[in-house]
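Q: Here's a chain of 345 amino acids. Please give me its 3D structure as tokens.
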Amino acid sequence: MFNKVLYDPQALALQVKRQKKYAWDLEKQIPWHLGVDTSRYLLPLDVDAIAFPGASSEQRLAISQLLGLIVNSTIAELEDVITKLRHTCWNEILRSYPVGPELIELGELFFEEEQKHSKAFQRYNALFCRDMGIHSSDLNLLIPKAYGSLFLKAITQNAKMGGHAFWWVVAAVEEVSIDIYKDLSPFKQQIDPLFHEVHLRHMEEESRHHNYAFLMLEILKEREQSLGDRLFSKVDRSIGQVFSTGWIVSELNKVFAVKKLKQKHPFFQVLTSCIPLFEKLSSKDLIQKLFVSAPYISLVLNGNLHIKTEKVAREHRSLSIPLPKPKRATTSVQPNKKERVAHGD
């Protein structure tokens, strides 16, 4: 799928030129001066507000905002992981498998952009805290953090053993990031303008460099030599799925810590009032929602929604975790059906 580009220095050089030409500046080209409009949704919600059926208008707004911050943090943490593992999962590979200068320059740009994206999402979350009047240390109790996690340790160990689960995780993260913007873009005029702008800029660069993970996987596929190489090529995608899914599910559980914060700010108080709605769901219904129909969360958890990554996995004959067929939910930024501006399949 990507081997034609891999051995076309002119195509790679054009991609380098395009990425440099259209790169955006973190300080100058995002309107940070706007701040956050805390009266607006960040992400549109489905009728059950992800897993809080019956949520009121006030609760839906708070859920939308927290979910947007969770998505920001998840992307920021994963893209920070990408930069942290640069040496082990990129430099060491290219030292063993020499490639042309264009592919190296593309890699340099890729890691530079990923670090910039992580900083952009972190800054947005910090501005939300400032404009909402909450402490960032309190928000950090509720949102995902990868540093020190089993996920980070497992992916690092896999790389040290000669595996390449890292690049399968990167491929999925890139694809999900683009799809998240597709889901929120129809609501551009209704969600917080700064939130939209950060995700728009992110999507633009992801679209320009999303093929890099696949190029690296193509290199690794073509240069398999040992039995260990062939074994890792079969199981690396499933290893990445298991540990990334486990990390995300465990980090989502952090939202229940909001009960400890309810006296600190009305935002946390409203979120605490949502917990009884969540508790109405059976374990079966909850799992069904998270992996099948919950907007954004299913997109991250269910590998069947990672269309390009799944296609490459089949071409590489790499094993994937079997998951149920997903169902894309209709989303809205309105509290009831009569007022809802719908978006969905």
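Q: Can you summarize the key feature?
A: The two ends are 28 Å apart (CA to CA).
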